[in-house]
Amino acid sequence: MSILFSVKVLSYYNAIIMSNEELITLANKIDTGTANTQEILLYIAVCESFQQKQVSLEEIDSEILNMKEAGLKKFWAHQKTDNIKIRLKWLPLAVAAVAALVILGVSLFFYSSQGNKVGQISKVIPEITPGKNIATLTLGNGKTILLSEIKTGLVVNPNELRYNDGTKISMPDREKELSRHIEEIEWLTASTPRGGTYQVILSDGTRVWLNADSKLLFPSKFVGNNRIVTLIGEGYFEVTHNKAKPFKVRTARQELEVLGTEFNVNAYADEMSTKTTLITGSVKVNNNIFLQPGEQAMSDRGVLSVSRADVEEVVAWKNGFFVFKDSNLMAVMRQLSRWYDLDVHFEGPVPNETFNGKVYRNMNLNDVLEVLSFSKVKFDITGRRMTIYP
Q1: 346: containing domain
Q2: CATH number of 374's domain
Q3: Eight-class DSSP state of 77
Q4: What is the sign of the dihedral through the CA atoms of 18, 24, 26 and 27?
Q5: Could you tell me if 44 and 7 are in contact, meaning their C-beta atoms sit under 8 angstroms apart?
Q6: Is residue 206 part of a domain?
Q7: What stretches of 19-174 adopt beta strand conformation (E)?
Q8: SS3 of 156, please?
Q9: pLDDT digit string (tens) for 340-362?
Q10: What share of the chain is helix, strand, coil (3-state, %, to 5)?
Q11: Backbone phi, then psi, for 353, in 5-degree steps?
Q12: Does the model's pTM come out above 0.85?
């Protein structure tokens, strides 16, 4: 297994010439935390230049961060020319590079592959930003409210709708109509598009985090002996305890019943199975199987099975990460396509690759795909259409 970075691979830089002004600019950006991925790599390259002269990592950081104040005098004491020519060699650099990336908080991505061909990108990868807080709320009469992108969640109160910071949700010229829809107890639908996520706090206090391309159907108020919602897509639930009113989640393949607990449900239509993973408490699946914390119920082609789950991998999306553990390429791309709103096509057989690692979901698509491009995966991308080749 080799280590790849979610920035440009070090071997890309065979020899780089940098002037005094460029080095000072780089030092300023590193110092202020405004450096982009390529500039961070250059910082690592400068570290490697010092390492070749047996300077410690601590001294390297001190050298770089003090360049602008010292006028590069200490820096140039290690050089014999007016420009620095940085030659990168992977093995001597590995330890210092990893340490520098950890210091700078850059994600590491570990990759394992069975392929033999070196992958290449035929086109420049466009800058596609990650998903964000985007959702709509559809009322019982079919009218839709576009929820604010600068807010993170919706709160359903008995007589009104608010954001989770307390701001009231309004419909200009239709305030009475909106209040009537909430007060009359009707079904509402919270929807996130591809590239969207949002939190919904139901009238009983239950919290639901919706992943991209998901829908939650729920009543404006819970009445009767049950609290019933329907999920399409993926959601993480923190259910408010109420022994007298069990909470039920319905999906296309499963029905769950809980009293008060935390669990994740993955019920996307394009996944081969529906998976419910219990974090805390207890869940009854399809009225006959009880899950214990850390267990996962999987419904696949009419067969329900229970196994231990990798909880970190399951709930990574809620915590702001992609976590891949021996994930095949199709599974990886299904997650990326939803979050980055990609249209993914495979030309011919799907490459037999597996991926292991942890990547921030707030990274731009090109930074994530750079990992794939050096993982022996051949692809190109035009607009939001990505084509992967054998």
Answers
A1: 321-389
A2: 3.55.50.30
A3: T
A4: positive
A5: no
A6: no
A7: 84-87, 108-113, 132-133, 136-138, 144-146, 153-156, 161-163
A8: strand
A9: 999 999 998 988 888 877 888 99
A10: 25, 35, 40
A11: -120, 150
A12: no
